[in-house]
Automatic annotation (TrEMBL):
Pfam families: RrnaAD (PF00398). This is rRNA adenine N(6)-methyltransferase. Its EC number is 2.1.1.-. Coiled coil: none annotated. The keyword Lipid metabolism does not apply. SMART domains: rADc. It is found in: Mitochondrion. The lineage of its organism: Eukaryota, Metazoa, Chordata, Craniata, Vertebrata. NCBIfam families: ksgA. Gene3D superfamilies: Ribosomal RNA adenine dimethylase-like, domain 2 (1.10.8.100), Vaccinia Virus protein VP39 (3.40.50.150). S-adenosyl-L-methionine binds at N36, L38, G63, E85, D111, N141. It comes from Lynx pardinus.
């Protein structure tokens, strides 16, 4: 007689609540590290559901803290969950979860900014970039202090197809201050449009999928929290090196309330600034009187393509730093003033 097979579903056994874990190990959020704990497991379950179907997935959780989201991920029937936690105070509580989920939870005491995730999961998980995303996910309730530098680092990894993206188009589901989440997903022309908007959207499909009120966290942050989902694009909307794109975008948003030519002009040395800025905008077919927030990803593609050609013609251009030139000019002016003062004596 045939027996109908059913998929086995893992569930954690009864455990102390996150609040009890915090009391048991005398854990306190460190304000300087921007730590905020999410204690409501209904909300952590919701975040994990928004990440997609995690059945048999390999998940990399950053900043697990006392383990709220960690529990929800383990209950999503993953094959393996790797957590990287810098703060040693949280390790005993995470170890309790590991004991309750034998073979499923791997704990690394380390820094997410330096941890080599590309060596963490089996080679067999790797997919071609053009294929569907691999069954590898990044999930995390990030401390506000590291969220922006970390997402910039990962976006550069997307561009280079290294780090967490050696497995393919690894999806990310991450928390940010609501204002940062809105910047990441801001459309052209909106007041939240920023450097982050362009850098994220030229490489990924970015969705603000959930907003969590600040009162859900302990201690309560002064802002609400946005959950953002990233899926790397099969082909970036700007096909230039990450550092070049970042340079153009950063300069464009340098003076966000002024016309775009003002910030873009800072790409060029003072002696050629006017002429080179006019050339850049003319060849890129970009209206110099647009504000930075009005520049679309297509505008930036044209600007980056033209700037690349200009850098190829003049290799010193890419290393130019207008702040350094400003500092040198100030130093020269000061020397002249000192010389004048000495000559009067």
């Amino acid at each position: 007689m045939a027996v109908s097979g059913t998929l086995s579903t893992f569930r954690l056994p009864p455990l102390p609540t996150i609040r009890e874990i915090i009391k048991l190990f005398r854990l306190q959020a460190v304000k300087q590290l921007s730590q905020n704990f999410l204690l409501d497991l209904r909300l952590t379950d919701k975040i994990v559901r928004k990440a997609g179907d995690l059945t048999n997935a390999y998940v990399y959780e950053v900043g697990p803290g006392p383990g709220g989201i960690t529990r929800s991920i383990l209950n999503a029937n993953v094959t393996e969950l790797l957590v990287v936690e810098k703060d040693s105070r949280f390790i005993p509580g995470l170890q309790m979860l590991s004991d309750a989920a034998p073979g499923k939870l791997r704990i690394v005491h380390g820094d997410v900014l330096t941890y080599k995730i590309e060596r963490a999961f089996p080679e067999s998980l790797k997919r071609r970039w053009e294929d569907d995303p691999p069954n590898v996910h990044i999930i995390g309730n990030l401390p506000f202090s590291v969220s922006t530098p970390l997402i910039i680092k990962w976006l550069e990894n997307v561009s280079c197809k290294d780090g967490p993206f050696v497995y393919g188009r690894t999806q990310m589901t991450l928390t940010f201050q609501k204002e940062v989440a809105e910047r990441l997903t801001a459309s052209t022309g909106s007041k939240q449009r920023s450097r982050l908007s362009v850098m994220a959207q030229y490489l990924c499909n970015v969705q603000h999928i959930l907003t969590i009120p600040g009162r859900a966290f302990v201690p309560k942050p002064e802002v609400d929290v946005g959950v953002v989902h990233f899926t790397p694009l099969t082909r970036p909307r700007i096909e230039q090196p990450f550092k070049l794109v970042e340079r153009v975008v950063q300069n464009a948003f340098q003076f966000r309330r002024k016309y775009c030519y003002r910030g873009l002009g800072m790409l060029f040395p003072e002696v050629q600034r006017v002429e080179s800025t006019e050339k850049l905008l003319e060849l890129a077919d970009v209206d110099p009187t647009l504000r930075p927030s009005q520049l679309s990803v297509s505008h930036f593609k044209s600007l980056c393509d033209v700037y690349r050609k200009m850098c190829d013609e003049d290799p010193h251009l890419f290393t130019y730093n207008f702040r350094e030139e400003l500092k040198q000019n100030k130093s020269k002016n000061q020397e002249r003033e000192n010389d004048k003062e000495r000559s009067r004596r």
